[in-house]
Amino acid sequence: MLERLNEALEHVEEHLDGPIGADELARIARTSEYHFRRMFSALAGMPLSEYLRRRRLTVAGAEVLAGERTLLDIAVRYGYGSGEAFARAFRGMHGVGPGEARRTGAALRSQPRLAFRLVIEGSSTMQYRIVTKGEFRVVGKKARVPLVYEGVNPEIAEFVKGLGQDTVRRIAELSDQAPEGIVSVCDDLDPNRAEGSELDYYHAVVTDAQAPADLDVLTVPAGTWAVFENTGPYPRALQTLWADVYAQWFPSNPYRTRTGPEILRTRVAPDGAEATAELWIPVERTTA
């Protein structure tokens, strides 16, 4: 998988001065566009669109300093419809406008080319299982919140705090299947997974029970799930688990993500220092 991702990155470098579609890159990587965007974001630490923008502005910066083309020619060459749009993007990355950079020979910033490598640590084994589930419902309370990669998500914490013990108890009583008990469910994520992008967050249970009218419901079609488990410092270990799944497990196993919610069952120790997590990710088996 990593070899094919790198082939897609080579395609990027060869076409920085032309259209680059995520669908074409996914075809080169022999996976779905949905999975390609999620894999790229997890491994690169930025959305594909941001990487393409930074690489184009890096190469454009070198051309600005070289002085062989007009600034408008460079703008058009790298996909900007006007000199003003190019200047804004250029200043946003380099901290200086293209005209000033050319006049003064200013130092510019650079986005290095990416190449993915699988680092084998060998000190631990990722514990997982593959589960096939029929259609089920996620029932609980929903909020639209921003994606946060590091630390506790303050909007989720405030949302859960405001639910009240009686509401949480009524939700918990509806649990009738794995993963048991109250779970955190994330759905309708931006495929690029840019930090700050919004998602639907459910404080809910997985159930076949009928939902009371005051609760939110998400119906999840039948499918296959990869289930991962770990224990460690809270909340860091949970976020590390998600990162390791994309950086280590997917490149090493014949599965890819499919459309669907991600479900996290967390049991925090009484002192709040550690937690045991069970992460459910919707997957499908690859054919190559």
- Radius of gyration, in angstroms, nearest whole number: 22 Å
| Count of DSSP-assigned helices | 10
Number of strands: 9
Percent range for β-strand residues:
15-25%
How would you characterize this protein structure?
- By secondary structure, the protein is an alpha+beta fold.
- The protein contains ten helices and nine strands.
- It has helices at residues 2-14, 22-29, 33-44, 48-66, 71-77, 83-94, 98-104, 154-161, 165-172, 236-252, and strands at residues 127-133, 136-146, 183-187, 198-207, 216-220, 223-233, 255-257, 262-268, 274-285.
- Strands 1, 2, 3, 4, 5, 6, 7, 8 and 9 form a nine-stranded antiparallel beta sheet that branches.
- A hairpin with a 5-residue loop joins strand 8 and strand 9.
- Helix 5 packs across helix 6 (83-94).
- It starts with a helix and ends with a strand.
- The model is unreliable at 120-125 (pLDDT under 50).
Topology:
Blueprint: H1 2-14, H2 22-29, H3 33-44, H4 48-66, H5 71-77, H6 83-94, H7 98-104, E1 127-133, E2 136-146, H8 154-161, H9 165-172, E3 183-187, E4 198-207, E5 216-220, E6 223-233, H10 236-252, E7 255-257, E8 262-268, E9 274-285
Helix pairs in contact: 1-2, 2-3, 3-10, 4-7, 5-6
